[in-house]
Each structure stands twice: as structure tokens, then as C-alpha cells.
Amino acid sequence: MDWGMRNRLDRLIPGGKCFFMPIDHGYFQGPTSCLERPGETIKPLLPYFDALFCTRGVLRAAIDPAIDKPIILRVSGGTSMVGKDLANEIVTTSIEEIMRVNASAVGVSVFIGSNYEKETLGNLSNLVNVCENFGIPVMAVTAVGKELEKRDARYLGLCCRICAELGARIVKTYWCEDFDKVVKGCPVPVVIAGGPKCETEKEVFEFVHDGMQKGAIGVNLGRNVWQSPHPVSMAAALRAIIHDKASVKEAIEVFKSLK
Question: Is 202 a catalytic residue?
């Protein structure tokens, strides 16, 4: 692995663990509750997450260029919630643009089992072909949209392994029962997606803790943080699980202490 790739990955995953903060939801669902002013949303959360996952538009319009956090750039899109099929994505961002905004990594969605499986896997493959030349890691985002209906270890394991085989340096997927089977079958680091907002804080802490115990390197989790009534408390508690190996009980104590 060349120096640039290693440097970017070490910044994204300090000490081998990571807490990515996604605020890219508007690229397909438009205005999102609590992300109306994304720059203001993330300000109090900056001490807790390791990297910010966003689109180039939000990065330019709403994020302070002095931010001391690596940027993971969302580079797939072209569909919407009101369109025919969310899976029919394209790559939206050139390598020149990726370099211009000084991204530390890029993220692209793949839709395994959809009508656009080949096209989205092609998007991933083409990005890897280009980004590897510049030392830019590619994160594959799998099991999204309607694919959530198929969220089990066998399906997620299939998705993650295919993404790794095609060259993704990191794979983002959802937690499930027997999550260790997903991780064991994937030769690159696995990051847990947050998914829909959970009913309770404990529910979030439990699936994150379980996933970390079963081999995940961290999370890419947004709505369960910035849509919480107590976002800073949530972020601090999650960071304790990820970086300090806190138990669920200890995470709840951290949450309550800041709440």
C-alpha cells in the first residue's frame, strides 16, 4: 500500500477504529429533518466523530473549510425518493473534483440483487480503477433502500464480499443477527450503517456494541445522532463504545451524564 493511501486510511480510522458522521441524506431525499443547516448541525458533534460523509454541494455551501476532519465524499447519485428506482445511480463526481475538495475517501452505493446490480457494481469498479491511481480509498455502501427487506447475514455477507472482491477498501453495511459471519467473510474492514432512527438510545448502543464485538471497525451513523433530542450525548456515548470499548451500560451512563 502506498504512502498516500495508508495516510488517508490512518486519518479516517485512527487506532484502527472509526466513527463516520453521514450527512449525505439530501442527495436522494431532499430536505431532511435536522439537516436543514448541516454546518450548524455538526458543529457541536465535531469533537466526537472521526470523518464527515457528505456531498460536494453541502461541503462547499455549508462546511467550514477550516474543519479538521477527513472528508468522505458521496460520489454516487442521480435518483430520488420520487423517482422510479433508487438503484439506478450514476457516478456524479470526477476524480478532479474529488482531489479539488481534498477528500480523504469516496463513498458509492451498490444495489446487490436489484435491477441495476451490474450498473452499480460497475460504478464501484470504475471508481476503484480511477481512485487507486491517486491513493483515494473507496467505501462501498451496500444493502440500501428496498434491499433492507433482505437484511440477514447471508445476504449482507454476499454483498460485502462482492464489494471487497471488486476493490473497495472499506465496506459499509447494516448490522444483523450473526453479524460475525458477515465480517469473517469480508477481507476488508466493515463499518456499520445506522439505518432508520431507532426507538431508544439503548437500542442503538446495543447493536453498535454487538457489531464492534463481532469485528466491525466502527460506524457510519447519522440519523440516530443528529435527530436525537440529545445529539451530543449520543455522539459521546457512541464514541465511548467505539474508541474506549465501553459496554452498553457504560455508554448509557455517558449519555445520561451529558444529557
Answer: no
Residue type, 100: R
Residue tagged active-site, from 172, 184, 256, 259: 172
208 CB contacts (<8 Å, ≥6 apart)?
A: 175, 192, 219, 221, 238, 241, 242
Classify domain 3-194 at the CATH class level: alpha beta
- Specify the amino acid at residue 42: I
C-alpha 10/C-alpha 93 separation (Å) is 24
Q: Phi/psi class of residue 246: alpha, beta or left (left: φ > 0; alpha: ψ in -120 to 50)?
A: beta
45-to-165, 191, 204 alpha-carbon distances in Å: 34, 19, 17
Domain ranges of the chain: 3-194
Of 74, 93, 90, give the one whose Cα is nearest residue 20.
Answer: 74
Alpha carbons within 13 angstroms on the beta-carbon side of residue 197 total 14
Higher-confidence residue: 197 or 251?
251
Answer yes or no: pTM beyond 0.90. Answer: yes
Average pLDDT, the chain: 95
